[in-house]
Amino acid sequence: MAGGGLAGQIARRDDISVEDFVRDFLEPNVPVVLGPRFTDGWTARRLWVTADGRPDYARLAALYGDAQVPVAECGTAFFSDQQRTTMPFSAFVEAWQRGPRAGLYCKDWHFARHGAAPQAYAPAPPLSNDWLNVFYDHGAPELDDDYRFCYMGGDGTWTPFHEDVFRSYSWSANICGAKQWLLVAPGQSELFTDQTGSWVYDMTAPDEARFPRARQARRIEFVQHAGETVFVPSGWWHQVRNIGDTISINHNWANEFNLHFLYARLKDDMAAVRHALRDAVDMDGFAEHAQLVLRADSGTDYRAFFRFVDYMARLYLRELGGGSGGVELRGLAPHFRAEPSLRRALRLVAAVLDRLAADPAARELEQLPADIARTRALVAGAVDDPPPA
Ligand SMILES: O=C(O)CCC(=O)C(=O)O
Ligand SMILES: [Fe+2]
What we know:
Blueprint: E1 7-8, E2 11-13, H1 18-26, E3 32-34, H2 43-47, H3 57-64, E4 68-78, E5 81-88, H4 89-98, E6 104-109, H5 131-139, E7 148-153, E8 158-162, E9 169-184, E10 219-224, E11 229-232, E12 237-253, H6 259-276, H7 286-298, H8 302-320, H9 334-337, H10 339-358, H11 360-363, H12 368-383
Parallel strand pairs: 1-10, 2-3
Antiparallel strand pairs: 3-11, 4-5, 4-6, 6-7, 7-12, 8-12, 9-10, 9-11, 9-12
Bound molecules: 2-oxoglutaric acid (AKG) and fe (ii) ion.
Fe (ii) ion binds next to loops.
């Protein structure tokens, strides 16, 4: 690749068992494209698409026209993202049909929360171990949030270079159309970020004056076709451009295998907050103030992270005890709910709880250390080896 970093190959699997996906991709945190068999049965692939594989604009407008949707203007940068507005879905579809020059990209639309057929799809079994959406659905309904999204846009609409929220995984399935992907493995961020915390906006044409080493980043580039699903592992930066009129559904998700990435992200963000506020460390109430700033910057804080982990730990303990009936976990493939998987998940949770318990930013908070200790003790009964006799 001319002037580019070493290019890698994307793995592709027409079919894969949940066990193999866990071993080959989820645990080692490696990207893969899954074949169309995982989406062939989806209602969305019939209902939203015409016989010749194009978006069925009239059908879409009739189904969801009244929804207010977030729309990016792909030609207008706004800090590290694009300018965004909100409009009725019917107005978006009208502009979309007029042609790609509009550059409007309906993205991050929480379509499942707005009456837009949550039954339009079901995550592929290997991708079903989705703690983030289990937590928002069942553990924190008052937050009225989720991480299920729909993207719709014409040829050339695109998403700038980024890493996903909380360092979560994503998966992205094409209902119709195609996407050009660029993925950059973790551990290279010094090549494309600067001192001020800004990063490269367009990795296909980086600003060489500001980011002279960006082109050295090792990358994987590939096209995702209609029906295919991309697994984006934790901490892999990525950029995406639509080829032709494209609709996709995606989730951000997390589970036992990337929980340590989520925690590491929280800890890194906290270190940045404490550095920014370093002149105030001796102030009364500094610990709580730092959490507030963390929450504003990162969308979460230590207590929210613990609440998420605690909720999932208790759910898994109940499932292990056979008592729950499992409504909360019913979306997970059987493999993830089998006893060995539950135990392994709880061991990974215990490891993260141990690190959290030792973290000075957690220890200085009211009540949190006691809460962590209580949950850790509950988990211990299920996972810790008995001490040698
Ligand atoms: O399809 C896009 O435009 C962006 C998708 C993305 O960033 C993701 O799936 O994480
Ligand atoms: Fe993303």
